[in-house]
Sequence to fold (298 residues):
Amino acid sequence: MKINNKYILAVLVAIFAAVSCTDEDSFRNEVFFKLERGGFVRFVDAFNPLIGTSDPATFVYDAAIEDVNGNLSTYNLYVIDNGDTFLVNSFTELTGEVSINITAQNVATAIGGSTADFEFGQTLSFIGEAIRDDGVVFDTAPLDADFDDNEFGGTTQPNLYTDGYRNAMLFDLTIACPSPPDASTYAGTYDFIQNGWLGTTSGTVEVVAGPGDNQITLIDAQTRRGATGAKDFIITLNADQTTTAETQEMYVHGTYGQTTLSGSGFTFECAGHRIIITTTQRVSAGSFGSSTTIIEKQ
Fold:
């Protein structure tokens, strides 16, 4: 059989080109080469954004994390406070599953604060730093490659922050109760801790369960604004301890006519059945803006 010499030459050139693309000595950009098979830490199970606790001053969040590629020497975890980052934990043993071990005490120590300052509904932001066993540092800066000018920055592809990756490199946690709210326990008289668009002349409001299984109703919830025939306000209590209120008609404004109200927030059954909801009041001409209401069961 006759072999075409040009064919052999083409194959050899292709092989050489393929090998040279992974040769660090001849790679066009050494920084980009070092990012192959990078360092990344993720949660072992589906990410839970809630810190379940009956006392914010003693909270513990101990979800398991793992070194995805098995190539890290260190994982540093920082808390973000007032725009600055403070080291909470540093892990140098990352074989198998490791508890992330976030506690009220180590967060307070990191930021120089007190555990007494933590409260239900407070959100804490964290950022991670993964150091590979060859010393290359991977953080949350997005990877930016400009091949035209041979300029490269960042270390992490944005898709790694999608839910499926369960990333432990950039995440928020909210201090909440140990279990989801049970609407049937919410019936009773509530005090207004803070008035918003909701409010009564008496400073209290009656709450009943329903109409839905996970809903409660605030009876005549806007009498403080001098509204006659003020309507009830329905709030949905979600399993993740958030609250939502679909747009619903409320009182009739003397000048602008029918008002509507909608909003969202949090609820903490273990803390006096506290409800925190930020609502927006609207009329046909536009919005009156948003305001936060806080009520607590007597």
